[in-house]
Design brief:
Layout: E1 7-10, H1 13-17, H2 37-40, H3 45-57, H4 75-84, H5 97-103, H6 113-135, H7 138-143, H8 148-176, H9 184-189, E2 203-206, H10 211-234, E3 243-250, H11 253-261, H12 263-270, E4 272-277, E5 288-292, E6 296-301, H13 308-334, H14 336-341, H15 344-371
Parallel strand pairs: 3-4
Antiparallel strand pairs: 1-2, 3-6, 5-6
Helix pairs in contact: 3-6, 3-8, 4-6, 6-8, 10-11, 13-15
């Protein structure tokens, strides 16, 4: 049973009706002298500074938009106008129609230069950043023969670009609320992209109701991913590190189908390279920690990731600390004077703390046993 996801697929009606006489509309310009992002960057610092400058330039750009007053479309000015003139924090006596409309709160998104400018330039800035990040990826720099010193400096440029992208998005969200939110990283991460954003067709939304079976399958996927993330956290594995594999036994056929048919999604969300689906009678993988439920068993082999003897020692020390704390709480709860005289919420808090400590101790015992 395939989980029916809400997904986007690209389609443009015009592309169904029209065709190029050369059949090469998706290629780079035929005129080799035309500059593109693929040819604008080299192994010199200047080209990357120019690319970063284009991002900053978008805050002050007053050209290239079809509006009556180009100055009104400057991002910083337009953003200030929409924020302040519309809220009585400031008033402007200019006779421009866009100014009067904002002063009197009667503008529309379609015909006001400032509104159009904020929307177009903020999302245009996002596109500029996405392209800059794409062109400054490590593999691109290596292919161009960029030196390690320059590559380190470019990494700083990339940080600046990401901050600018966040600010462009902040402006758009502040004014419009719900705006498209897709970065190059997100676009490529989930495997939906056939092409980079800048060359992809405009998407259309397709919704499919998968029914109760799809809902149950997705709940299983979420539970398994959550369990794997918890196991990673238990060994203090950095979030950015990809685990070699996880192993899983599934009792229900529908759960097995949901996990196997959406394996790419599970691997992405759990951040593992591979998933081993074990038969019901398979032995427990050696040197692994686990989460066991009534419907499935998840095992995370960690023998290749860390020194298991040291991990056992760490777990034993943590167990001893929890055991000491549990004994302290137990003694307090065994004291009749405390139970009778302390406020009920204080007593209940101590009981909850004892339950939590005992649960953690049981979990540590399971992990120690799995590593031996």
């Amino acid at each position: 049973m395939k989980i029916n996801r809400i997904f986007i697929t690209g389609s443009i009606a015009g592309a169904m009706l029209l065709s190029s006489c050369l059949g090469d509309l998706d290629t780079l310009p035929l005129n080799e002298s035309d500059s593109t992002s693929e040819t604008a960057y080299g192994n010199e610092e200047g080209s990357y500074i120019a690319g970063l400058t284009k991002i900053y330039w978008n805050f002050a750009n007053t050209s290239d938009l079809d509006v009556d007053d180009g100055g009104a479309s400057e991002l910083v000015r337009a953003f200030w106008s929409l924020q302040e003139l519309s809220a009585d924090a400031a008033k402007c006596a200019w006779g421009d129609s866009w100014v009067s409309d904002i002063n009197n709160n009667r503008w529309s998104d379609a015909d006001n230069a400032a509104t159009y400018g904020v929307y177009a330039r903020s999302l245009q800035g996002v596109a500029f950043v996405n392209e800059f990040l794409r062109q400054t990826a490590p593999d691109k720099l290596s292919a161009r023969g960029v030196s390690s010193e320059l590559a380190a400096k470019i990494e700083g440029f990339r940080d600046e670009a990401r901050f600018a992208r966040a600010y462009f998005y902040w402006i758009a969200l502040d004014i419009f609320g719900n705006v498209p939110f897709t970065t190059e990283e997100l676009w490529g991460a989930f495997g939906y992209a056939r092409e980079i954003i800048g060359r992809s067709e405009w998407p259309t939304l397709k919704r499919v109701d998968g029914g109760e079976a799809a809902k149950t399958g997705m709940e299983t996927i979420q539970a398994v991913v959550r369990a794997m993330r918890n196991l990673r956290a238990e060994i203090k594995m950095p979030p950015q590190q990809t685990a070699p594999k996880m192993c899983i036994k599934v009792k229900r056929c529908e759960d097995s189908a949901a996990l196997s048919e959406n394996e790419d999604l599970v691997r992405l969300l759990a951040k593992v390279e591979a998933i081993d689906f074990l038969p019901a009678d398979a032995p427990k993988p050696p040197k692994s920690i686990s989460t066991v439920t009534s419907e499935w068993e998840l095992y995370f082999p960690i023998g290749e990731l860390l020194d298991t003897d040291k991990e056992i020692a760490r777990l034993e020390a943590e167990f001893a600390k929890l055991e000491k704390e549990a004994q302290k709480i137990s003694a307090k709860l065994a004291n009749k004077n405390f139970v009778d005289r302390a406020p009920a919420d204080v007593v209940e808090k101590e009981r909850a703390a004892l339950e939590s400590a005992e649960t953690q101790m049981a979990r540590i015992k399971e992990n120690i046993a799995g590593l031996k």
